[in-house]
Design brief:
heterodimer; A: alpha+beta; Arc Repressor Mutant, subunit A; 3-stranded antiparallel beta sheet; 5 helices; B: about 75% helix
């Protein structure tokens, strides 16, 4: 059997990435500005964490024009949802075991 | 042991983010309490008016179908309801804005919008339905319980996007409305209970649970 630590997903260890995924799990899609305000981070910081999750194919990006501005929205992919749920399960199991 | 608190911390952060991004949590219990007092005042004004101005009394009006009422009566009803609603909404937005500021939350975000849309669809349906009952069928007595039922359904629908207590308030309003349909003629009393007393009770519960506690203990 895999040890508990191995079951935790390294991609979600960071607080901001965890926050991004949490918001995307309960909303069909969330735009960049809303994520920024929710997590209270700078543009650059948020963008780098989004790119990391995007590379892993945990989140999908949609860009569209609203007037002349681009609006970028994000959503969790199927893989992202599965991985996040595994991570949650692992956290819960670890807490239960140490009780 | 240290690791365990670390994991608990992570889980609670996940929960915070999920709730904050999808729910409108700044709804203040005090808005409910004050809205309740305005509703009681509105119901009292109606009660006094009917007993002073109308020879027949409210129960007779509620039981006659179709009922013939003069323009003064309609004007009074709409003015009374309109002023009560306006005051309730005004005080509601004041306390909610205040709570949002205190929590460092935005007043207007996607979660608020979602809550409002889901609240207003059943509410507007009920409003239009009641106007049809009143002006097309002139059935006055059924309107107070109907407003309670639709208001309850609206709260039930909106409760998915806000504090859980709103769901129970909605269910209570629906039950009260259904009972009211069986006993026409107690419209003013129903309104006083449904819009007045229930709002005050649930408002106090929400205030005690979420606002009258130290900041770090908020929400869970």
């Amino acid at each position: 059997m895999k040890s508990f630590i191995d079951r935790l997903n390294k991609a979600f260890e960071n607080r901001i990435r965890l926050g991004i995924m949490s918001a995307l799990m309960v909303n069909a899609s969330v735009d960049f500005l809303a994520l920024k305000e929710l997590l209270d981070v700078t543009d650059g910081n948020l963008a780098s964490h989004i790119t990391a999750l995007e590379k892993l194919e945990y989140i999908a990006v949609k860009k569209e024009f609203v007037g002349k501005k681009t609006k970028t929205t994000y959503m969790a992919t199927k893989l992202g949802r599965i991985e996040f749920n595994h991570h949650l399960k692992a956290l819960e199991d670890m807490i239960r075991q140490s009780e | 042991m240290n690791q365990k608190t670390d994991h608990l911390q992570q889980l609670s952060e996940i929960k915070t983010m999920m709730e904050r991004s999808s729910r409108f949590l700044s709804l203040s219990g005090l808005s409910g309490v004050f809205a309740g007092f305005f509703a009681l005042a509105g119901a009292a004004a109606f009660y006094v008016y009917v007993n002073k101005q109308m020879a027949t009394g409210y129960r007779a009006i509620a039981h006659s179908l179709p009922v013939d009422l003069d323009l003064d009566f309609y004007t009074f009803c709409f003015a009374d309801a309109g002023i009560t609603l306006f005051l309730a909404l005004a005080v509601g937005s004041y306390f909610t804005t205040r709570k949002a500021r205190a929590d460092g939350q935005k007043i207007w975000d996607p979660a608020v919008l979602r809550f409002m849309i889901n609240l207003f669809i059943p509410l507007a349906t009920g409003g239009i339905f009641c106007l049809i009952l009143l002006f097309k069928f002139r059935w006055f007595g059924i309107i107070p319980p109907c407003t309670l039922i639709f208001y309850g359904l609206a709260l039930l629908n909106g409760s998915k996007y806000t504090l859980d207590e709103v769901r129970w308030l909605g269910i209570s309003e629906i039950i009260l409305g259904l009972i009211g349909c069986l006993y026409l003629g107690y419209g003013v009393t129903l309104w006083a209970i449904g819009f007045g007393i229930l709002h005050i009770i649930y408002g106090l519960i929400m205030y005690i649970r979420y606002e009258a506690v130290p900041k770090e203990k908020k929400y869970w």
